[in-house]
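Predict structure. Chain length: 492.
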Amino acid sequence: MSNTDPVTVLSITLCIFAALLYYGRRRNGYRNFPPGPTPLPIIGNMHIMDMNRPYETLHQLSEKYGSVYSVQLGEEKMVILTGYETVKDALVNHADEFSGRPRVPLFHEITKGHGVIFSNNESWKVMRRFTLSTLRDFGMGKETIENRIDEESDYLVEKINSYKGKPFDNTMIINAAVGNIIVSILLNHRFDYEDPTLLRLLKVVNDNTKLLGCPMSMMYNAFPSVMSWFPGIQKTVAKNQGELHEFIEETFTTQKKQLDANDQRNLIDSFLVKQREEKPSLELYFTNENLTVLVADLFGAGMETTSTTLRWGLLLMMKYPQIQRKVQNEIDKVIGSSEPLAAHRKDMPYTDAVIHEIQRFGNIIPVNVPHATTQDVTFRGYFIPKGTQVIPLLTSVLYDKNHFKKPKEFYPEHFLDASGNFVKNEAFMPFSAGKRSCAGETLAKMELFMFFVKLLQNFTFQAPPGATLDLTPAVAFTCCPMSYMMRAVPRT
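Prediction complete.
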């Protein structure tokens, strides 16, 4: 140390003092804040986190600290809510107080607070109302969208038949089939599965889904001021999202030239009409920026979560062939060779239970999208100040041992009574709940049922000879299966 510049020593000392001071203030700033593991200076609780699957660490910590506790990741102190009763209490009974979104650095980089998923305040309310009403207008839950799903499922069956029973990776074709449904609402268009534009859009969404769930992403969100000096993850995520935004902007620029308020063909047309009608004021909501991010939100969320659920479903059917056979027997009995319809669901309790269990076991959004408190709130005896990041941990709801007999197993009987009738389970919450619940829930349910039934009606899914079927999730923002190969054997 004798050769060290005294100025350097002083600088390091001051930095350590400032960090300790900051740490002390963050830790002790509020009385009766939810308890949690003791954070270390600067890094907080990062040292105890499973960086690949943080939801598992967060779930485990609740066993020691209770259903409402806190963790600190770098600069950010957040509250974790676990278990069905606690999560429902927050999102439903205290819906307004927990309806905000925090400023998560990487997500803010690609949305700038626009769109519907990561927006706040009046802009979020306007975008969500518009989204819900427009999705309904263009067929969500109606026969028109049912016909589109039926048509798309035929294309998917045709594509799978082209592999002639040989092993293939289903990721891109399942993505494309599901993506075409939301694209039909957004653009009134359908892409061929080999269309290079569609394949590129799917790739950037898939790549960002992986990047946003990787350890480097977690590090960036925890230490944005430091990680901004090493912009690898941020730069790649922004570049990918920029490609998607550019495609959307080119599309609505073209549609704007052809716009007819009396003949609105898709969601973009409806938005552009609202934009034209919006009266000039200090706050404009139907802006080009909101349109770009809204369409990106709906395309990404509408494609990724449903296609991931279907891919879990096919993997699980290969893993548990006896369950696959029972689903096929029910399909043969109720539908036969006819086209599957959404109305068939009520007569197919076992299939319905299997689809619900695929969603529960698949645990697609394990950490949920982060919430934030919109005001100071006292919740279950703890004080949570306005603006606190809150994680309603969906994995703790879907795997709640108080509501599911075998939470860590794939067990369709979670949704069946002793007589084989379908029964709802109140802790089934894959779409979240409350004011920030998934806007496309009705569409997703219809897609899952119709695609899944059509596939099992036409094929028996098997693993290639010698293949090991691994149910360990991949590392990504969504809880998706690792890549796998499958065989689709036509049913005779």
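Summary: Residues 6-28 have pLDDT under 50 and may be disordered.
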